[in-house]
Specification:
The protein is an all-alpha fold. It has helices at residues 2-9, 15-19, 28-41, 52-76.
Length: 79
């Protein structure tokens, strides 16, 4: 998780892969699995009861995860 959060704020050429915590050589299925796990874990609805500030941070992370997944899908022409 620390690496994923760090890479949200320090982007590199492989920022999307780092946010999803997978290697560039990962298969499409591995990428989908990583996305699903991170999206479930960081979904804002899961932490809504902890207060607005925490829900906002979860929302930001969830959006970064979604953006990373979309970037990889576009790069690889995934459906």
């Amino acid at each position: 998780d620390v690496i994923s959060v760090k890479n949200m704020y320090l982007p590199s050429a492989d920022w999307a892969y780092k946010i999803l915590e997978v290697e560039r050589t990962a298969t499409d299925e591995e990428i989908k699995k990583a996305y699903r796990q991170l999206a479930l874990k960081n979904h804002p609805d899961k932490v809504a009861y902890l207060g607005e500030e925490i829900r906002q941070k979860a929302q930001e992370k969830f959006q970064k995860i979604s953006s990373a997944y979309e970037a990889i899908k576009k790069e690889r022409d995934m459906k």
